[in-house]
Backbone:
């Protein structure tokens, strides 16, 4: 029971790190970024490379997100910025293009096989929590996700950058009239989202095989989280990630054959019945 | 300070401004009136950098601005209160003011959040409320306060008293007096000259995208009845003398 709960929470954290980026990118740029899973994958590969070169997992936790944030900024400036005034379909196609190109680059550099990195020594092993033995790394994952999530929350709620972000989500033209270059804000948001995705990829690297295509499965779950939470709604994404993470963990334990089907059913029902998301309330505010 | 010369501007294929010229310097209050659809808001959008010119020039302190953007106009000291106010719904009243200080950290013109709260005490009471919870009058005060925190040298007000209760109109007029006392310029757009009459130093009337009449305060006072009838659409036969 406790073990399943911990696994559910750790899945929820991964989903949240990815979905938070997706949802703020949508809120700010109006772009549904299909390439988000690829940024997660690139983060994983960079982490593998850093650990292979230096043997230092902690360094990879710093390098991979920063490198992918820089890459994301470049992608936004070069490929997305020229398309904002065009049809949404063109932006979608561009993010698809980014997937194809980055997949190909990764395949050329690291090959098609899978890579893995060892659990960092200080985080291996298990400790007893109530009735179960729980892998220390799972707890670390939850902690890291919590810290990143709280950091993001603090950034959005309590800093001037956060005020600008929330303002620009609804009235970008007015933000410009206050002297703030919204195009730069968009780049920052895309870089932030990419960095969070890469952080998720790095944290996942000791647990799952790092390989081309690894971003695909998880990104589908992330879209579910974003839709359940309400597009552009970060608090909703937190709630939806928790819901889906726990459903995944407990479903895997108790009714594995139904889990996929029921998840997608819920998604379809929400899309038809509450397209604004389960966690968006007309009176409440979006954050 | 800010001069628009022979401006043409379009929305797609539809031309909304024809050869419009306007100008305001420090301490000037230009009242711009005209019927609905005359092009007043469009003229302000051009001055705020939100709409590009098809032809004509926009000059600031004698220099022609080649590609004015809203950011650039803000940094030059042109602050904009749009017709629909554009209060940020998911920011608190306080945050709606703080956001102006991001790009304007120095109180060059001496406007601080506390001073805005002194000017509009109602905003102070409501400082924790979100933009979406405000009444129309509160939104208008907030939009003006937000513009003041950009430390304006020229303030563009698009129908600031539209739909407001008389007490709120009085508060807005009081605010305008205080702003003028700081030697900032103001361009105030209204459907008629009722509210701006006592404040304005010059007057312009727009009709179908053109300047139909303009004059100084003295000229306006002399031709007041003609200008009024021009505004109410009765003056097509008896045009006042353009100057
Ligand atoms: N965003 C827009 N797109 C197309 N046409 C517009 C737009 N805004 C205004 N117009 C048109 O431009 C003309 C002038 O409008 P506007 O400047 O808003 O007038 P006013 O502020 O004097 O009422 C009107 O004919 C109006 O229909
Ligand atoms: Mg108007």
Residues:
């Amino acid at each position: 029971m406790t073990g399943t709960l911990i696994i559910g929470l750790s899945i929820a954290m991964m989903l949240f790190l990815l979905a938070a980026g997706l949802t703020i990118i949508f809120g700010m740029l109006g772009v549904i970024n299909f390439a988000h899973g690829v940024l997660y994958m690139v983060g994983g590969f960079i982490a593998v490379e850093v650990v292979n070169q230096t043997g230092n997992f902690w360094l990879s936790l710093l390098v991979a997100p920063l490198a992918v944030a820089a890459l994301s900024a470049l992608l936004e400036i070069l490929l997305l910025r020229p398309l904002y005034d065009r049809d949404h379909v063109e932006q979608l196609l561009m993010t698809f293009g980014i997937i194809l190109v980055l997949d190909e680059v990764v395949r050329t550099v690291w090959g098609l096989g899978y890579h893995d990195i060892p659990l960092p020594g200080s985080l291996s092993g298990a400790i007893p929590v109530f009735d179960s033995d729980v892998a220390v790394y799972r707890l670390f994952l939850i902690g890291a996700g919590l810290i990143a999530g709280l950091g993001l929350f603090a950034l959005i709620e309590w800093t001037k950058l956060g005020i600008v972000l929330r303002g620009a989500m609804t009235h970008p033209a007015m933000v410009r009239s206050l002297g703030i270059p919204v195009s730069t804000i968009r780049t920052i948001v895309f870089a932030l989202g990419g960095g969070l995705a890469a952080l998720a990829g790095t944290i996942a690297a000791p647990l799952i095989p790092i390989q081309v295509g690894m971003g695909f499965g998880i990104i589908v779950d992330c879209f579910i989280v974003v839709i359940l939470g309400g597009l552009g709604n970060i608090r909703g994404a937190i709630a939806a990630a928790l819901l889906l993470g726990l459903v995944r963990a407990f479903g895997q334990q108790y009714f594995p054959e139904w889990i996929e089907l029921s998840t997608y059913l819920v998604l379809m029902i929400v899309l038809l019945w509450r397209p604004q998301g389960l966690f968006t309330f007309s009176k409440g505010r979006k954050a | 300070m800010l001069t628009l010369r022979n401006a043409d501007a379009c929305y797609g294929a539809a031309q909304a401004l024809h050869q419009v010229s306007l100008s305001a310097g420090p301490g000037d209050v230009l009242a711009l009136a005209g019927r609905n659809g005359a092009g007043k808001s469009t003229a302000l959008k051009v001055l705020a950098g939100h709409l590009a010119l098809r032809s004509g020039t926009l000059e600031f302190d004698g220099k022609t601005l080649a590609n004015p953007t809203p950011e650039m106009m803000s940094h030059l000291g042109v602050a904009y209160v749009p017709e629909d106010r554009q209060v940020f719904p998911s920011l608190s009243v306080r945050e709606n003011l703080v956001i102006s200080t991001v790009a304007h950290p120095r109180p060059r013109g001496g406007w601080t959040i506390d001073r805005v709260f002194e000017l509009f005490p109602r905003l102070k009471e409501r400082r924790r409320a979100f933009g979406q919870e405000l009444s129309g009058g509160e939104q208008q005060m907030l939009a003006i306060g937000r513009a003041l925190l950009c430390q304006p040298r020229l303030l563009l007000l698009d129908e600031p008293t539209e739909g407001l209760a008389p007490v709120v109109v009085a508060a807005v007029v009081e605010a305008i007096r205080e702003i003028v006392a700081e030697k900032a310029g103001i361009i105030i757009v209204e459907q008629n000259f009722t509210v701006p009459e006592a404040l304005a130093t010059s007057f312009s009337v727009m009709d179908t995208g053109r300047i139909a009449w303009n004059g100084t305060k003295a000229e306006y006072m002399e031709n007041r009845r003609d200008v009024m009838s021009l505004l109410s659409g009765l003056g097509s036969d008896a045009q006042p003398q353009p100057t």
Residues 22 and 33 of chain A are 7 Å apart (CA to CA).
